[in-house]
Amino acid sequence: MRLSALFVAVAAAAATLAPVSTAHAADGYDRCPDGHYCMFSALDGNGDMVALRGDHPDLTTVGMNDRAKSDWNRTPWTIYLWSGLHYTGCTAVTSSGPTGKGNFYPTYRDFFSSVQFGGPGGPGCGTPPGEDG
């Protein structure tokens, strides 16, 4: 009997000394791992996310075809976003570095179907009228 009372007292003391974690899960753009190109289904890095490390000719395979509204390029590569599957249609560019994060122009939300790391890219989609800054 004494042994089980001692065990309960030690277990209770250990439980009160356990460290409490104040860390929280990453959200928004911060979910994108270093070295990846990430696309998000909502603005400001919210919604569903895909993190890519190489070319993707068909974003349907990762559930992001015609669904992306924002992105972050955390790679050393320039990313070419193609309007069509298998690198067809027109392209828009996402630079690497601090300028490679943000929301797509409204015209280009839910628009892209394939992703190419590096070049050569294709005909530019251009800046939509009235959305030049």
TrEMBL record:
Residues 1-25 form the signal peptide. Pfam families: Inhibitor_I36. It comes from the Bacteria. Keywords: Signal. InterPro entries: G_crystallin-like. The keyword Signal applies. This is Peptidase inhibitor family I36 protein.
